[in-house]
Amino acid sequence: MIPLKEIVSKLSLNVIGNFPDSLSVSGIGSLEAAKADQISFVAGSKYIKFLAGTKACAVIMDYANLKPELPQDFKFIVLDSKNPYLAFAHATQLFRKPYGDGEFSGRFFMDETSSVGKNTVLFPGVFIGEGARIGDNCRIMSNSVIGKNVSVGNNVTVYPNVTIYDDSEIGNNCVIHAGAVIGSDGFGYAKDKSGYVKIIHSGYAILEDNVEIGANTTVDRGAVDFTKIGAGTKIDNLVQVAHNVIIGKNCAIAAGSGIAGSSTVGDGVTIGGQVGISGHISIGNNVMIAAQSGVANSVKDNEIISGSPAFSIKDWRNSVILFKKLPELFKKMKEISKIKDS
User: Fold this and answer.
1) What is the C-alpha end-to-end distance of the chain, expressed in Å?
2) What domain range is 40 assigned to?
3) 186 and 68, same structural domain?
4) Are residues 295 and 171 in the same domain?
5) What is the mean pLDDT of the chain?
6) Helix, strand and coil in the chain, % to nearest 5
7) C-alpha closest to that of 186 among 260, 129, 246
8) Is pLDDT of 216 > 90?
């Protein structure tokens, strides 16, 4: 339980209404499911309909924007914020519960040449290879493998069944979810008369500070040099990042996307789900790519693109409208052709 006044103070919220200093909150719930000792949030007018029935003791919202639509005689406390979704995100941090706990001494393997920092917890079944260095306050969970000469920073969480290949570099405050693989070989082969000849990948993978990698996502090592994920970038589940890809800072990449080898992605890029990006191209800064797009050519800064092959989203929307009208247009063309032939 966290006192509501503490939440208000930490999130710098404005309070509309009165509440006793003793009021504490157990967590966060949706408007429909929140209990009387929980808070909720509303980020847009389409959720207003749920406010009349909510049991939440307090609701985060943009009060000035939603005030005309609020139900009469509402009983909850308003926690006013100009960016309620961001305030909600910060609130979830306050109620975060660590995964697993306890001491597991002697139930993992750590090479005698490797090192682990202060307050780092190694779960049962963890393997730490030769020369690996793990920082302070890390949690390496069951059946994860940390390869030779891997460097892991401070405050890193590695969930179960993660594999971090040799020589990889993991920055501070990173989160790597279950089943992810960092530093595996890329898909590189040369073909001769007898078949495919494997290119030995001698590079490595880098995750800079504050990177989050989703479950079952793969980040290949460089064929030579490195593959790099920039600081603050968040990658969803089931994403493939191929060898020698360079991704900039503070990008967001949704599930099912794939980036082929040696492409570069700038800072602040948003990539929707199931996007495919070809190899050896460059995506500029602050680009937005709509879901299921296929990107075959380089993209300039600040563009918004969609489609396969992808191009300007404005032109793509116009094209989709025309595509839907093709049967009608074709019918009219046939009618015109009959008139000319008659």
Assistant:
1) 84
2) 2-94
3) no
4) yes
5) 92
6) 20, 30, 55
7) 260
8) yes
Per residue in 255-278, pLDDT (tens digit) is: 999 999 999 999 999 999 999 999
The burial class, CB within 10 Å (0-12 / 13-18 / 19+), for 323 is: exposed
Residue 73's pLDDT is what?
83
Domain total in the chain: 2
Last residue in a domain, options 94, 121, 152: 94
pLDDT for position 338: 75
**143: closest CA among 166, 129, 125, 122?**
125
Catalytic residue selected from 177, 201, 243, 280: 243
Query: Is 133 part of a structural domain of the chain?
Result: no
**Side chain identity at 84, as an amino acid letter?**
P
Assess whether 35 and 166 both reside in one domain. no
Asked whether residue 239 is assigned to any structural domain, the reply reads yes
Quick check: 101 pLDDT over 70?
no
Q: What is the DSSP string of 295-336?
A: E-S-B-TT-EEETTTTEEHHHHHHHHHHHHTHHHHHHHHHHH
pLDDT tens readout for residues 15-68: 998 888 899 999 999 999 999 999 999 988 888 889 999 999 999 999 998 988
- Residue 147 in any domain: the answer is no
Please say if 243 is a catalytic residue.
yes
Q: CB-side exposure of 238: number of CA atoms within 13 Å?
A: 7
For residue 289, the domain's CATH number is 2.160.10.10
CATH number at residue 26: 3.40.1390.10
pTM: 0.86
Contacts of 239 (CB under 8 A, 6+ apart): 214, 217, 218, 253, 254, 255, 256, 257, 258
Beta pairing class for 218-220 and 195-198: unpaired
Judgement on whether residues 72 and 176 belong to the same structural domain of the protein? no
pLDDT band at 332 (very low <50, low <70, confident <90, very high): confident
172 in the same domain as 87? no
Residue 294 is assigned to a structural domain of this protein = yes
Alpha helices in the chain (DSSP H): 4-11, 63-66, 84-94, 313-324, 326-341
Q: Are residues 194 and 305 in the same domain?
A: yes
Specify the residue for token string 């380089």. Answer: 298
pLDDT exceeds cutoff 90 at 98 = no
